[in-house]
């Protein structure tokens, strides 16, 4: 019976191509707007490292002022001080751990044909690469012993390798960064984390850095701060070292804890560490330490911006308006078929059978509108990419989930839109229509 209804629906659409086309267009516009915003929100909030997101934890210690919280309501700071970051690293209490920070420096290629350029720097420890499953094209990361020895080694991005070494295997070669000579030990393959969860303070949707060097190079080379730097009291002294040893926060800390027992043990360690620091006159606030896994941290930091969510809600409102317009068009279309319905009712067709026929027709209209809506959504996503650059391209593609969701919304919306018009045409008494024929 369904195929029979489908055949009738097809014939009905062909009889009224302009009216049916308007309904398809209304649904397509609503679906296109919705799927554009839904896709961006969906990919912005997607799990960036699903294979181990429940094993990676962001560390927060409340080293802030005794008089007010770092963030409301009673939230600990979102970063660590240099003192705490280095102390936690020296303790080596997690399966893997890496303190990190961002900075910048000029890269000076040996090739005179390649001009020096400003590169983004990620200061990190050796565990950073295996902890975040960084893909390597050549070589690998350095060892923790290199961190301790303050060796001048570097891992560079594929783009930097292409720019400085023409894409060749540069492992073992030298590269000048911020006036210092570093030895390349690894070249990353294409690596786009969406969101780039390991440092949301400098932008969850920023590109991965150009160069990665050992964390202690911050102190050795007196590198500038990147991202947000906040202080609750002034440094005790002048100069770079005084600022480094102050209560100012600018550093991130991630640990890998494979089991719940590991997590509990590390939290116990953090509490004991804070107690030790309290005895030294630091950490004036009550215990407020946090370990947040990847998804919890992204939610806490509101990686999906409020304005993006508002845009999505507005798109749904636009879809609702499109549905209302479709309801009006369906009422107009079905009103011209009262006589046909009355005749079918008179020869024995039930209200349910006629209702099913018209709902099938509206579902077919919704399906076609969904296809058109996907095309409009693709255009909308391409427009977003052209506005915000190549990196956002990771956020602007329709995957299988989004395609299925698109058809589901389109068909559901059209069926809901057709319920009232179909019910109304089925409720007309057959006798009143047959008298006029």
Short description:
The chain has 437 residues and is α+β, with helices and mostly antiparallel strands.
Shape: elongated
Radius of gyration, in Å, reads: 31 Å
How many beta strands in the DSSP annotation? Answer: 11
Q: Biggest sheet, open or closed, and with what strands and sense?
A: 6 strands, mixed, barrel
How would you classify the helix and strand content by structural class? alpha+beta
How much helix is in the residues?
Answer: 40-55%
Order of helices and strands: HHEEHEEHEHEHEEEHHEHEHHHHHH
| N-to-C span | 28 Å
Question: How much of the sequence is in beta strands?
Answer: 5-15%
Total of helices: 15
| Mean of pLDDT | 85
Q: Uncertain segments of ≥5 residues (pLDDT<50)?
A: none
Question: In order across it, which strands form the biggest sheet?
Answer: 3-4-9-6-8-7
Question: How would you describe this protein?
Answer:
The structure is a single chain. The protein is α+β, with helices and mostly antiparallel strands and 437 residues long. It is 49% helix and 15% strand. It has 15 helices and 11 strands. It has helices at residues 2-15, 17-44, 82-91, 128-131, 144-148, 158-165, 217-221, 240-244, 260-279, 294-300, 306-335, 338-346, 351-388, 400-426, 430-434; strands spanning 56-60, 80-81, 96-108, 117-124, 136-139, 153-156, 174-177, 180-188, 211-214, 249-256, 290-293. It has a 6-stranded mixed β-barrel with strand order 3-4-9-6-8-7. A hairpin with a 2-residue loop joins strand 7 (174-177) and strand 8 (180-188). Helix 2 (17-44) packs across helix 13 and helix 2 runs antiparallel to helix 14 (400-426). The longest helix has 38 residues, at 351-388. The radius of gyration is 31 Å and the shape is elongated. The model has no long low-confidence stretch (mean pLDDT 85).
């Amino acid at each position: 019976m369904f195929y029979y209804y489908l055949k009738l629906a097809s014939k009905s659409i062909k009889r009224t191509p302009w009216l049916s086309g308007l309904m398809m267009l209304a649904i397509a516009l609503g679906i296109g707007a919705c799927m554009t915003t839904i896709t961006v929100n969906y990919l912005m909030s997607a799990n960036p490292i699903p294979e181990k997101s429940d094993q990676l934890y962001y560390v927060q210690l409340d080293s802030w002022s005794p008089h007010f919280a770092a963030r409301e309501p009673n939230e600990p700071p979102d970063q660590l001080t240099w003192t705490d970051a280095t102390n936690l690293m020296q303790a080596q209490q997690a399966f893997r751990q890496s303190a990190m920070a961002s900075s910048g420096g000029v890269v000076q290629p040996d090739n005179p044909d390649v001009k020096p350029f400003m590169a983004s720097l990620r200061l990190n420890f050796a565990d950073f690469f295996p902890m975040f499953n960084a893909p390597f094209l050549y070589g690998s990361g350095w060892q923790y012993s290199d961190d301790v020895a303050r060796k001048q080694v570097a891992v560079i991005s594929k783009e930097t390798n292409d720019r400085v070494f023409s894409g060749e295997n540069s492992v073992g070669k030298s590269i000048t960064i911020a006036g210092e000579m570093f030895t390349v030990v690894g070249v990353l393959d294409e690596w786009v984390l969406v969101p780039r969860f390991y440092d949301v303070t400098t932008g969850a949707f920023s590109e991965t850095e150009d160069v990665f060097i050992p964390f202690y190079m911050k102190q050795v080379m007196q590198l500038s701060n990147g991202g947000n730097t906040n202080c609750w009291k002034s440094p005790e002294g002048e100069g770079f070292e005084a600022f480094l040893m102050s209560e100012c926060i600018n550093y991130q800390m991630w640990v890998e804890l494979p089991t719940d027992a590991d997590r509990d043990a590390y939290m116990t360690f953090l509490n004991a560490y804070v107690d030790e620091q309290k005895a030294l006159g630091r950490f004036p606030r009550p215990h407020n330490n946090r370990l947040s896994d990847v998804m919890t941290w992204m939610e806490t930091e509101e990686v999906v911006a409020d304005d993006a969510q508002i845009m999505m809600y507005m798109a749904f409102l636009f879809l609702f308006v499109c549905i209302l317009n479709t309801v009006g068009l369906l009422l107009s279309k079905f009103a011209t078929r009262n006589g046909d319905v009355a005749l079918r009712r008179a020869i024995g067709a039930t209200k349910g059978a006629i209702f099913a026929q018209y709902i099938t027709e509206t579902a077919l209209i919704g399906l076609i509108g969904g296809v058109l809506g996907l095309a409009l959504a693709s255009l909308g996503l391409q427009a977003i990419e052209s506005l915000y650059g190549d990196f956002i391209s990771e956020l602007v593609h329709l995957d299988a989930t989004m395609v299925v969701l698109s058809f589901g919304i389109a068909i559901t919306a059209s069926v809901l839109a057709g319920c009232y018009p179909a019910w109304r045409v089925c409720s007309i008494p057959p006798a009143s229509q047959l008298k006029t024929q």
